[in-house]
Fold each of these.
Amino acid sequence: MNATPPKPRPIRTAASLILLRDGPGGLEVLMLRRADKPDDQNSGASVFPGGVVDAHDRELHTRCVGLDDAAASARLALPAGGLDYYAAAVRECFEEAGVLFANDAEGALVALDRIDPERLAAMRAAVADSTEALLALCDAQGWRLAVDQFAYFSHWLTPPGMPRRFDTRFFVAAMPPGQEVQVDGFEIVEHRWLPPAEAASPALGLKLMNVTRRVLLELAGFASVADCLAQARARARVRLNMPRLADGPEGRRPVNVDEAPYDEVALVDPDGQGGGRYAHEAGLSMRLSPRVWRVTGADGTHSHFVGGDEGWALIDPVPGEALRAAAPGPVRWVLATRGEASAAGWPEARAVAPKTGESLDLGGATLRVLDGDEAAARRFLLVEERMLFSGSAQGAAVAWPDDAAVEWIAPARGFVVRHAPD
């Protein structure tokens, strides 16, 4: 009996605040080092201030200035509750780094370095214990949370398959004057101001999550705090980044949306249960779908088995025993995207060369020939899965047919890619 897959954990919403300052050599970013803790996937990692959005963060709306929930939600492309993220970013930054974005009664940013250190420590401890304490602090001091100092910068969702998943909004802000970073010593044990490129460099040796490294690399493109804030505020839309986990020669790692394997990993492993690859080794056999298997040859060229109830068609067989060993069932037809098909080595199969517009019925799977010009690669469309076998390499120009619904292209070299019509 197959074991029941574990029930996915709920995705938790979170907010992170990236603090910036202009240093002698250019832009610098605040990095916090988390405490080492067992059973913490981020133990010892260098991070930005931030954490989970609390249900009570909504109560802070009335203590925010410069932005209401409607405007915040519109910026974050949410129907409501956008201001929760801004409020959570204020609260978490104060708890972890001792930096508070708040205006005094005259509308100026508060200077915490003017407050007695023991009293300030007590304020932080109270806020860390409950959100209500931040409400009381604002009321007692006449402060309002200066969320208008933040610019929405990035949106990340933890990959499927991770034990804990977070839907996190990242904001950027200039380090307020009159304040110093004071880590809490419990969740956070160290802080450093670093140029983003230096912080992201493996040579420095910081333990970085994928999202942190990617954000740092993006920050490295800005010359100053003003430059970063201006460009962040000018963005019409902040896209969602959701990496996907995949396996390969260097072990499991996240694959980001702008990497070549991303679409393929999404196709073969949508729920993060395993099976996606970020590299194609010689002899690798992969199930792309119930009707499609792919085998990679020694030179990196792929062969595809496409099948149904009547048997399997083999497109572009590559030499080698690995291909025969990987056959998912009896092969009845052999086809070629370029030149003449040969059934050599496949005694039960016959080589076929259907003409443009003709179809091969595999029994529950239909291969349609989209063109048969021998001067160019023939293209075979698996109708039921809207997958095109093009015979071209990944990234090569493909003339998408007007008369067929094509969603995926399976190239002769490289990764399956999704077709996004203009």
Amino acid sequence: MTSATAGGTAPVPPARTRKSVTGTRRTVAVLFLLPCLVLLGALVVYPIGYSLIRSFLNQSGDGFAGVDNYKALFTDDGIRTALKNNVIWVVFAPTVATALGLVFAVLTERVRWGTAFKLVVFMPMAISMLAAGIIFRLVYDQDPHKGVANAVWVGVHDTFAESSAFPNAHPGRQSPLRPEKGGFLTQQAVHAGQSVSLPLVGVAPDKMPGGAKKAVQAPSEPGKVTGTAWQDFTRGKGVGRLGQVDPGELGYPGMKIEAVKDGKVVDSAKVRDDGTFTLSEKADGAQLRLPASNFREPYNGVDWLGPSLVTPAVIGAYVWMWAGFAMVLIAAGLAGVPRELLEAARVDGANEWQVFRRVTVPLLAPVLAVVLVTLMINVLKVFDLVFIIPPGSSQDDANVLALELYRKGFSEDQPGIASAIAVFLLLLVIPVVWFNVRRLRREVRR
């Protein structure tokens, strides 16, 4: 084809095929992207659209319910508890994980084995949420012999406050003792030169202290009050004499004995391994008391998965998993911080805390923001840990929106309310995602 010009005719160049910025033809690019677009539409766009429509329908799905499903978000007790717990999660879990990641990233730069430490801290990321939930369900077990958390807690507690070895001990028949303020008191006063028998029962043979020896009847001593506190029980029918020390019966080592006059303790002693004890002449005319501390139940630790602590306990499991993620990203940002600025601050007289607070943290602010926002998005949809770690008795107290969505949709057969929760979660996540994308684009432009 030709066109007329002042100087004659000139050929018209053929139309060019439009190309992308990478030089690839747009049609080819679309063909390569088509499978991804189809999957994105099937797995993301369609579920979002369907959930939005379903949230306005009734339970059976054949009638319009209006905004009734959304009203349930603020009137249903379970959903309100889940919403409150989600606020706690969003406020504390990302903050603690990011703070720990920052501390780990800064400190590991100063040690030779920093790489090994980072590997250990990051390793939980290789574990699935399901496996982590099972692990921490065992960690938080109430029994100190099974749960690591309570084993440590009980060990620390017993270091400073020794627990009793005789929580179930009590007087038997025809005993000279009577109950008194959680302990036991002799019915009659004792006198110097007297040997007192304090028989008790109720401690299983396999629960007796390891240092317990065969009990002996304490001999009387002039000017002193002596006695024996022992397990007045011998296996076998008709074996043993009630109220008397028999062969094979064991003493109560470590049990505390107090001499009380007019409500005041005038003397005290501890029972020896063979059950005997000795009080001074101050005990003359006093009543003997076995205080309640002898029979205190052993400390069994903290109820980590009880109603009051279950949410912080689950958050602790989450932080254990994701602190390594925060550490790696912050360490990458820290590697790009100019060392000259840090050295200049030190030369100007700043100590390490001032360098960290006034130089390192401000320079890492963009990275910290990205990590914090990413973790906030992650905790908004946390499900696995809350589903696995809390026992059935306290799962309602640990409830979150993602778990309540599962309950409404599958356990309670209320798909309309479940869809409303899903849409509500999407609306919560969108501003955070938008903020994160906007910040990332700003960083790229720089």
Amino acid sequence: MGIEIAGLGGFIMLVLSIWAIVSIVGSNSSTGAKVIWCLFVLILPLLGFIIWLFFGPRARR
């Protein structure tokens, strides 16, 4: 049972990280800022995603 829950949590974190990276790349920020935000989300997935959610650049709508 624990493996399935951890697998589902990992999958959800993967989807959220991909969504964050796509949103970062589509934003109007400078290239350097985009690289730093992407690295932050990739290196610290949960913490990076939460911080990006509140403070990060957003994609154009």
